[in-house]
Structure prediction request, 339 residues.
Amino acid sequence: MTRWTRALSFIAVSLLVATTGHAASQALVDAAKREGRVTWYTTLLVDDASGPLAAAFEKKYGIDVDFTRRDGSIQVRTILDEARAGAMKVDVFDGTTTAAFVMKENLAEPYKADSAVDIPAEYKDPNGYWTAQVLYFQTLGYNADLVPASEVPKSYRDLLDPKWKGKMAWTAEPQLTGGMGFIVNVLATMGEREGMAFLAALAKQDLVRLNNGINGVTVALAAKQYPLGITVDNHHTVIANAKGGNVKWFYFEPVLGLSNNIGLIKGAPHPNAGKLLIDYILSVEGQTVLKQGHHIPSSSKVEPEVRDLKGGFRVNYISPAQGVAQTEKAQAIYNQLFK
Prediction:
């Protein structure tokens, strides 16, 4: 990220009302400042989350944040490659299932940030290897200019209507934030036998596969490229509509619930700065920055900007460890039916 881009990111949060939330210990702050920088591999959107967070952190502590945004699968490969080469550059990682892969390779360092006290127990590892920074609820979406409210599908079976053939988009990278998550949730909802029968029928609907992540589905809906998206994070519709889109989200219960989890790398080049960054992001102040970026904070003390994004529906929450096994199973089904 350039200094100019970081400056623009900071402008986005400069109107944030100052909060008096958690304050890191002075000893940690001093140690982090001596290190002077932190490297963060993130999956969060740059303009709406990671950029504003990095800018706010730099402004508060005077510590440089070198962050790179990648999709989760690419991020994991990068971390593992650095570890094998004995040249670890990253201090802090995040992602939906990244923690599970990093822990499997014994590359995660446990760290329980004091600010994580406001995050519910189900959204953090009991040993401190990962903590949710934001929540994701995978729903369906549609462009309200193309689909009248009366025609919005009311059940999974409605997706099999011939009128939707070739008109539904999803993303199917090998991770739960996309088609793999949709497959997992269908099986959890319907059971193996009925779920597989439904997926086989859905495969005949000629789903349009997009290769630019789950947010790419919402962006395509906003651009009126497709009327329906069957893999949409509900908060992405808020982001798209703030930019002039007319995308609405809807769901069939239970909704797939995931979390974007942050953690510290073992042997990090800048461990104290890494801890301080994690501490900041999980604090009320950091969570409020995420709220301002239309994300869903994991903290119980910070409600999302649009309250119904986070509640009012049953949730099938999948932790990082559960996610690895579920992804492998869903990938096999995808290869069998949709590839």
